[in-house]
Amino acid sequence: MIERKKMKLYGVRHLDKLPELNKLSEEDRFATKVVATVLPFRTNNYVVEELIDWDNVPNDPMFQLTFTQKGMLKKEHFNKMADAIRRDASSTEIKSIANEIRYELNPHPAGQMTANIPFDDDEMIPGVQHKYRETALIFPSAGQTCHAYCTFCFRWAQFVGLNDLKFATDESNRFQGYLKKHREITDVLFTGGDPMVMTLDKLKVYIEPLLQPEFDHIRNIRIGTKSIAYWPYKYVTDKDADGVLQLFEKVIKAGKHLAIMSHYNHWVELSTDVSKEAVRRIRNTGAEIRTQSPLIKHINNDSAIWEKMWKEQVKQGMIPYYMFIERNTGAKEYFEVPLGEAFQIFRDAYKKLSGLHRTVRGPSMSATPGKVAIEGVTTINGEKVYMLNFIQGRNADWVKRPFFAKYDKNATWLTDLKPAFGKDKFFYTDELETILEERRLKVEKIMNLAG
Question: Per residue in 118-149, is it b (16+ CB within 10 Å) or e — as a string?
Answer without folding.
Answer: beeeeebbbbbbbbbeebbbbbbbbbbbbbbb
